[in-house]
Structure formats: C-alpha cells, structure tokens
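Students often ask why we bother encoding 3D structure as a string. The short answer is that it lets us treat folding as translation between two languages. Here is a chain of 67 residues written in the first language.
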Amino acid sequence: MRVKKEIMSKWTEKQKGALWKKNNGKVRYLSGYVEIEGVQHKVVIFPNKYKKEAKHPEFIIYSPFEK
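And here it is in the second language, the structure alphabet:
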C-alpha cells in the first residue's frame, strides 16, 4: 500500500489541471482548469467541428464566458 501512495504522490505533484465531461443537450465537451505558473485558469474544450484535414486540431480550448 505504501508504494501505491508514493506513486500517487509523484503523480499528484505533476498534476497541472483537471477536466470533467459535460453535456449541454447539443454537444459534449470538457470543462475544468489548467494550472500555469501556479495560477489556475478555467477552460472549456470542444470538439473542432471544422476539422477537414489531419493537420487541423481535434479539439479547441477556450476561456469560458463568465456568468
């Protein structure tokens, strides 16, 4: 059990954010945060519905609109 906690601790130290699956009835997306230089930034991630070529990204990351 101790080895597992040590591994989790190493992964926890490397964690840079978290995402949750969301569904607004029209589209599925991810919502969460990324940490950059110690500051948490909220993000939403949507599938790229305009992807036409392999060089286009699969997903686009946005700053969310605040309510």
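Translate back mentally: The longest strand covers residues 28-36. Keep this in mind for the problem set.
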